Amino acid sequence: MTVLIWVVIFVLTFCVMEFMAWFTHKYVMHGFLWYLHSDHHRKDHDSWFERNDFFFIFYAVVSMTLLFLWHYDIFWMGLPIGLGIFTYGFAYFMVHDVFIHQRFKLFRNADNWYARGIRRAHKMHHKHLGKEDGECFGMLFVPFKYFRNI
């Protein structure tokens, strides 16, 4: 029974992270921490790393802290929540940084309706170079309007 509860918590955490990605992107990255996110929209650097990568580090630290708390019997839900955050972060990284932005040269030939919809939605977001007017959405559940006529 404990495993079933952990699986439910893991899946719920993964789904909540899609909301957190949207919320963080709209109100934090395009809000008071625009300084860290702006180099993702305007390549004002020559480095492979971006200031924007600090957001990945933040969620990685949260995930590791929860795993640590579970390991030392401080917080029993730390394992499924920490793994849910980690798994979402990995999925987001694979879709956003690897597939869309090609930070690693993988999945270049992916060409199906979902891949085209994700690329189209992300391109629409990146056409705005400032912190205002950029439509924000999660990376795994993109609005269906971007999948029309594909």
Structure summarized in a few sentences:
With 150 residues, the protein is an all-alpha fold. Helices cover 63% and strands 0% of the residues.
Walk me through this protein's architecture.
There is one protein chain. The protein has 150 residues and is mostly helical. The chain has one domain. Helices cover 63% and strands 0% of the residues. It has 5 helices and no strands. It has helices at 2-32, 34-41, 54-71, 78-100, 113-126. Helix 1 (2-32) packs across helix 4 (78-100). The radius of gyration is 17 Å and the shape is globular.
Element layout with pairings:
Elements: H1 2-32, H2 34-41, H3 54-71, H4 78-100, H5 113-126
Helix pairs in contact: 1-2, 1-4, 3-4
Instruction: Give helix % range.
Output: 55-70%
Kindly state the number of beta strands. 0
Q: What low-confidence regions span 5 or more consecutive residues with pLDDT below 50?
A: none
Estimate what percentage of residues fall within beta strands.
under 5%
Global mean pLDDT: 84
